[in-house]
Amino acid sequence: MRFFSVSLGVILFVSIARADTKDLRQELDAANIVEKFDVARDGVGHLLLPVVIQKNKYLFIIDTGCDDIIYDVSFRSVLGKPKKTVTASTDAGSVKLESFDAPEIFLGKLSLQTTSDVSLFDLSKLRKYSGCDVYGIIGMSFLKHHVLRIDFDKGEVHFLKSPGFKPGKAYCLSFQNGVPSVETIIPGCEGKEKFIIDTGADTNFSGNMRFDLYKLLKKNQIATNLSLSHNTMTLGGAVIEKDFLLNIFSFGPFSHRDLIFSSNQKCDNVLGLGYLSRYIVTFDFPNQTMYLHKGKMFDLSDGTDRSGLSICRRAGKTFVSDVSWLSPAWWSGIRPDDVILKIEENCSNLTSLYSLRRLLCMGGKKVHVVLQRDQKQIEISLLLSGDRGTVTSGKGK
Q1: Regarding predicted confidence, which is higher, 215 or 189?
Q2: Closest by alpha carbon to 291, among 173, 160, 180, 127?
Q3: How many Cα atoms occupy the beta-carbon half-sphere of 300 within 13 Å?
Q4: Based on the domain organization, do 247 and 335 belong to the same domain?
């Protein structure tokens, strides 16, 4: 069972000029639309949809990398008596979740009630590090019955009756442990590699690769180490991942150069939102097919954090959660638990964490940061590292 992946702010994406994709976009037939929801554009953060529980709306993540539906512990009274306790595996270790009968809960006109059990877990850490009021995860026990189209360019998610007219290049999906995966060939490797398609892995990097595959690619000079690592949040806690630059990644007729992937000793091969947001993606789960259409971010250039800051949000305030040792942030005197009031002209509490982190990717630039520490306001001119991959990593000291 794979769950969400929340980076603590060290890898992001830098947009560059895009080719016009108007000729690639197919307008949807209104008669084919079952439900439509607005989400953040350009793959900025998680795909959050409004779920109605007892007449109130709560944000749930659409997560193809999770095999069931997970509710926050605050909904214990809604779910009733637990049936059993199940063990779920994450990159950071195993966790125990309580299992319940699925309640009659709605996403628009769509009922989330299926014959599969649902789980209960404390999602407070997800809210803290994503900066979003997330109270649940909608996984494959529901999604497998539907056709789902994600238009990252427009910021729209559609549930459809069928994939529609010319939805894009078709790829066969296979399912293992309840989640979808696709096969691709990576230069320097023998045979095909399977990658989990994970819309719950947020936009901070293109994806993950198994550690043995990463070592092979490095040996064959297909992958280049970055002197960076980052923390990824899972249900089991944070795990440190090594970041590397992949010379070329081909997926059918589509190829990308210099993508950033991450690896750790326990991770699977995964393609997350950072990669998927380059396309308009249509999932025909009942027919085990995924369609990709080039989007306006197809030529997106991966960028890395140049500050050494990890940030989170608690009770509506944006905090420094960690400072990498000997990084630009460390040398400037920024400390863990400092409250960030502004980065440049952006009020931190009114700006998504993703957008704030993106401001810290501009190599060689001085960034104006306003902090609060012990009731005192501090202004810092933070000179970001000029070279990709040169920010020193490690726990703040």
Answers
A1: 215
A2: 173
A3: 29
A4: no
